[in-house]
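protien #1 (seq + structre)
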Amino acid sequence: MNGRLEAEEQRNQRPDQELTWSWGHRPRSALDRAEAMAPPPPPPLAASTPLLHGEFGSYPARGSRFALTLTPQALHIQRLRPKPEARPRGGLVLLAEVSGCCTLRSRSLSDSAAYFCIYTYPQGRRGGRLGGRRRAPRTFRADGAATYEENRAEAQRWATALMCLLRGVPLPGDGEITPELLPRPPRLFLLVNPFGGRGLAWQWCKNHVLPMISEAGLSFNLIQTERQNHARELVQGLNLSEWDGIVTVSGDGLLFEVLNGLLGRPDWEEAVKTPVGILPCGSGNALAGAVNQHGGFEPALGVDLLLNCSLLLCRGGSRPLDLLSVTLASGSRCFSFLSVAWGFVSDVDIQSERFRALGSARFTLGTVLGLANLHTYRGRLSYLPAAVEPASPTPAHGLPRAKSELTLAPAPAPAPPVAHSPLHRSVSDLPLPLPMPQPALTSPGSPEPLPILSLNGGGPELAGDWGGAGDAPLSPDPLLPSPPSSPKAALLSPITEGVPEMPASSGLPPPTPDAPEAISTGGPPDHLLPPLGTPLPPGWVTLEGDFVLMLAISPSHLGADLVAAPHARFDDGLVHLCWVRGGISRAALLRLFLAMERGSHFNLGCPQLGYAAARAFRLEPLTPRGVLTVDGEQVEYGPLQAQMHPGLGTLLTGPPGCPGREP
């Protein structure tokens, strides 16, 4: 393997920072999660250490031979015949660009070779620069032995090693690599808002998300949401022990519903630790932008951002997620994972709703209109600086016990049933065109065969992926067949067949199209905050005056391409306060937002721009009219206060990227 490939691989090494856990090490309880969050020992092998080396044929092309070398970070490919390449093209497949791997066999009984296919999504080139990702599967032929059984064992050895590296499963030192090393496929509960963004969420999900997670061998059930707060109702009645994560395929709003639904359950202490993820198909994809940066990818929008986040989801891995408890003027409380905004940012967010058909461009148009009609708002901002210890004593114990533990026997009370409309459908019920040639692919240990899918705009034609003219097509050869006792998808799904339950029997009020924002009744107490309207304790800082905007943000990104808090982390335990005082010109405010695309707005030296890292804050608007938003959702206007709860949730982020790139 030439030095150029090794140097390129070294540049793409991951830092020493490790994941909270990966798909290969999935915690199943709060205690397991706490143990899993301890930093693991450093990897025993360097990123360039060869793990496997072998010679293989190609498929569907005949006659070519390749030398493959697998390292912890990449697969090196070097052509041996018909003519060795001096400078191999496509000779380095980074595992960060691989969604999964499977073994195959020929449908011709006379073919003793076995095959393994690697699903890659490399970035193309546009004018000499990196462009969008494209699906590029690579299939290799294991034919070094005389019998199919021996060739199959070799193909399975390589496929297993690749999947172990992708899922964070350590490889044994004795070289015995068998499919039994792989754990059961993770089970994901997918929620899709078909109206997200420009209304393309369901199409993007079918064409990009479902094929990729199927290639990764992830087991899933998918439900389309039908109305506001539908996701909240679903997660409140979900048996969380059957799932390894809840993933929203939409914008930031659907995840807001999911988190507040988890915190509204009687068992919220355990429920909120359920890993949640986001695959961006909305107009506001701020958290996905932060996840993309955490993974070491270049800033991206649209389908490119979706493919990046899907690749990270396939790899597994999570981080603790800080959640901000926001108490509104009425005394109701909700939890934020993103931001609280007042002034220019919230005005643009809400007023641009009428341009939702434009997707993320709605915010650009809204910003231009907002600059043309710039307002200032008088108010009072108070905050507890991060370096100051709370004046009130911290409780000696941690989070309070769940309601069920306080009032019932040790066994938690079952969640009340949720009224499901007849339109609740799992992915197997939904019309997916472009049928796959039979037999359909199945993922290892999947409850049911994978659904008929459209792979990135085209059906997974075996002749296209795994065959060519004159070649016998290949059939899937799963690494691990589903055990006879595998649960069926119907048992894992909250969907009920037959007559839907009536709202009167569920104990919940009937849903209405204009249901209010998700409000959580559970969650930890805000021990840093006195009641609204009462004096603040010593140690708080208060600012009063005219503001153009006030933003309290938790992660680094305000949008997929807006880095509002460049040094923020998912689990830094801080709320990052940014404000712009009155008196700023329209041109200066525009320069701030343009610089925010690179996260360099604090370097402009704007005298009206302020920043503080805090643990809690109180905002008191003194202007009678205005707009307040929490995670992009409009809430009641009036005084509010909030406290950060470090690491309360868990976010599916995938493995971390290059040093200095983590949000």
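ok now protien #2
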Amino acid sequence: MESIQIGYMPPANEITADNVMQLVMYGQTKAFDFVVSPINSPNYSRVLFPGESPQSPSLVAWRAGQEAFKPEDLVLRTADHTDYIVGTLSDWQDFDSPDARVRLHSELALKQQFNWAAHLGLGGVMLPYPPSTQSLANYGRVLTGSLSMLAYTSCWFKVPCMDEILEANVSEDLQGMKSWERWNSLRNMAGSESKLGIALELSGALPSDQVLDRWFAEPVKAIILSEDIFLTNNKGYPVLSKRHQYVVRKFMKYKPAFILSSSSLPKLVLDEFSDDSLEQSMASPHADYIRYLHRTQEAPGVIDQFATGYQDYLQAPLQPLQDNLESSTYETFEKDPIKYQQYELAVEKALLDRPVPTNGEPDVTVIMVVGAGRGPLVNCSLRAADKARRNVRVYAVEKNPNAFVTIQNMKANLWGDRVNIVFSDMRTWKAPEKADILVSELLGSFGDNELSPECLDGAQKFLKPDGISIPADYTAFVAPMASNKLHADVSAFKDLAHFETSYVVMFKAISLLAQPKPIWTFDHPNWTDIPMDQDPLSNHHNIRSGSIEFTSETSGMLHGVAGYFESVLYKDVMLSINPATHSPGMFSWFPIYFPVKTPLYIPTGAKVVLDFWRLTDVRKVWYEWQVRCSVDGVGEINATALHNVGGRSSSIGLY
């Protein structure tokens, strides 16, 4: 298990240039990973030049950058141990003051502090939370223009999870959203791709889960816990309430640092002759407790273990008709026990439902596995036949020449005469007989995004009139979502094309603004649109569209659309990556992410409409999408552009 970083933050007004190195030694003695200290002393507020004329020589010189820090301005005067220190900025700086001089001098002071922090090589800089009644407009402008000065130093904006002043008249279930709203206004100015992170301060009273969920989609780099919110157990050790334990453990999955803040300054210098010298030299019990919570987290499940390294990583969906999959890709999918367990069960039930032969009729059930890959579904079908005690004749059809080598070996060494192997595209193969059961695993993260409908349209002519397709149907689901990280990663490409491309992603730092809803379904076999024994003349019957409305329970930023699927393999046997019905332990498919170029602010209670189209021509299939937001009594308040018009940026090739 990865280690956890824990820091210590004493009262800023009690740290001086004289005791800051003692603070460092205290932190090391108590086994903290870093300490938090002010960069400047209160004396630095002199740069406001109260009462001085605009023509004052000292004021003019300082504005012109001709005056460096004075020693008495600084708490951190040297680069000693600065990689162990996170610095905090002065809280007297008022970027949105009605006084023009205070605004200007606060800005110049911030830039001087950033320069000094970068020069020292501080591990990080923490920005103060402005007064609740104050605008953040100028603060955001100043910060956005100054972040580039911190090339190698992290920058965290300190935010309380509950702003007591702003939340005074807010309903209990929405308390905490005002703090998020303030952060969001600052982040929107800085841009989602900026290096600005969050130091989130957890209070004694915590927001509801739906409010906290917004923070999981944000760049929370540190969690601040005041020692005052800890309880004392019957053994005298500090502990957190059950609710705080739950929240802290949930944040631990996102790997932030933790900062223990104290309302009083402890004895920084160890007195080896005192009665409590042993206790002074022991690690912080509060920090030990946080480490205990980290050690005793629930062990990662199968999906989490498989997803290591893939979480919030943008991957292009597979194009199995255009590209031949590599052996490693097949191997990855074949490790999923749940998917093949469900396929085997579906085939077994389908075999048991076939009529029992009478009057000397042939007792062999013909199974065709189309898109056989390296043979896992063939193995499933043979095991299912053995369990159902039915005689089967299996055809394994595969167009990938490299995968076909593997199934040649499987036939020679394992399957024998029970399986006929065919090297062909299922859409063009001329089958020697009709199938009772057609089995395929052509599903993508959105159900149809790897062209399962088009492939099975060409293969269903192999089926008998009463034949069974496994899967029988699949439904795409969509939900509005927030993810600062994913949007920033797409923004980093700096072009339109990447915003008009869908990505397969193992979601982690995301927040759904509403629960997923179904948008369209494909059923197989499709005797309605395709005459028996024939190929379709066009692909127009596979066009789909939908406009799905959601109501946002809390405000949030919409960075895109999350896509999922549910599939009925046969009767009650299902596969699903929809969060509400997810097949336990299945990891073959990650969700799909459709980004929007310009994030939308979604107010509490707003109606969000996701418009989606699945379109096609003779060469390709593509998706187009847009998002609209409206408020009752006001109407539509914002909307995105239509993305990927005509498949100009991304599509799935039919050949």
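The chain has a mean pLDDT of 92.
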